[in-house]
Design goal:
Elements (H helix, E strand, L loop, with lengths): L2 H12 L8 H6 L8 E6 L10 E2 L5 E4 L3 E4 L5 H12 L8 E7 L4 E6 L5 E4 L6 H7 L10 E6 L12 E2 L5 E6 H5 L15 E4 L4 E6 L5 E4 L6 E2 H7 L12 E5 L8 E5 L1 H5 L7 E2 L4 E4 L9 H12 L3 E2 L2
Parallel strand pairs: 6-11, 12-18, 13-19
Antiparallel strand pairs: 1-2, 1-5, 3-4, 6-7, 8-10, 8-11, 9-10, 12-13, 14-17, 15-16, 15-18
Helix pairs in contact: 1-4
Length: 314
């Protein structure tokens, strides 16, 4: 994978909560909605106390003395002004403060190849990278692009190639590398309530057996790879390798067992046979010299090894 993408994996994993310089302004400007719980206080007035109150499904808030208020769509500052106006019948020049004690109106779903998938509350303005930080960053097997799905009420997604389904939500893809290497800083878009951020698993090939660096190797977007290229990423053959008895283990849709494709690495290295292309999720298995027959039992063991194998990025 490109260095920029690897940098994002480390960056968002190391900084799980990114706070912009204007964090306080973002909180003050937070737009309230249903399921938010707020705390109201009046400065220097101990006679009137408000318990934390929940904004109901209709967007309303019920408070002593102030009565029923429509809070959804207001910022905390706007709501404080409305409450202060209601309290003027009881208090001279009331100074009201509203704080959100429990966020519930701005959920964002982060799914796929992230370290902590789940539903997160925006709690103010957040960008794509900041929300990925809430999910503790990308996993090592994350792909090169991220898909964002958005409700129509929030408008189109400001990314090239964004689509709008006439009967459904907006969707778009963000190029992770373009964000990190500043080729497209605008791709780090603001995230809206109810957005769904999906990080697909990267396409991979696996090299197991008698090589110096066995593991799973992440492919670049639209990248293809040959047997020799995969062997190079695995840092070459171990001294005990049976290079003439290698196999490509390939899953076949609908088949009970994978297909085995014989590979004579010795001939390929000697340019006596053409190199072979690997497909996504192929396993290149190189047995040791004591198992040149490469029995099916050994192949099955290799497949089991691949399911929990170390993933390598380039």
């Amino acid at each position: 994978m490109k260095p920029a993408v690897s940098a994002l994996v480390a960056f968002v994993a190391a900084v799980p909560w990114l706070v912009p310089a204007s964090a306080q302004q973002a909180v003050d400007g937070y737009m309230l909605g249903s399921a938010d719980r707020v705390s109201v206080s009046v400065r220097d007035v101990k006679e009137i106390e408000f318990k934390p109150a929940l904004i109901d499904a209709a967007g309303n808030l019920e408070l002593p003395y102030a009565g029923k208020l429509h809070a959804a769509g207001l910022t905390t500052g706007d709501l404080a002004k409305v409450i202060a106006e209601r309290l003027k019948d009881y208090i001279n020049d009331p100074h009201v403060t509203v704080e959100v004690t429990e966020y519930g109106s701005q959920p964002v779903s982060v799914i796929g190849a992230v370290n902590k998938p789940g539903v997160y509350q925006l709690r103010g303005r957040k960008t794509l990278i900041e929300v990925l930080g809430l999910a503790e960053g990308l996993r090592n097997d994350a792909g090169h692009s991220i898909t964002i799905t958005r409700r129509k009420e929030w408008g189109s997604i400001p990314l090239p190639g964004a689509t709008a389904d006439p009967d459904g939500p907006f969707s778009a893809r963000a190029d992770v590398a373009a964000i990190m290497d500043a080729r497209s800083p605008g791709a780090n878009i603001p995230i809206r309530p109810h957005d769904v951020i999906a990080v697909p698993r990267a396409e991979m090939v696996y090299v197991v057996g008698c090589v110096r660096k066995p593991g799973g190797f992440v492919l670049g977007e639209k990248e293809s790879i040959t047997v020799l290229q995969a062997l190079s990423m695995a840092e070459g053959l171990d001294h005990a390798a049976a290079s003439r008895e290698a196999r490509i283990i390939r899953a076949v849709t609908g088949a009970a067992k994978p297909t085995e494709i014989p590979v004579n690495l010795e001939n390929i290295l000697a340019n006596k046979e053409p190199d072979q292309n690997l497909q996504t999720n192929d396993i290149l298995f190189i047995p040791n010299s004591a198992a040149k027959s490469a029995a099916l039992r050994s192949v099955e063991v290799a497949i089991q090894m691949a399911t929990g194998i170390v993933i390598w990025r380039r």
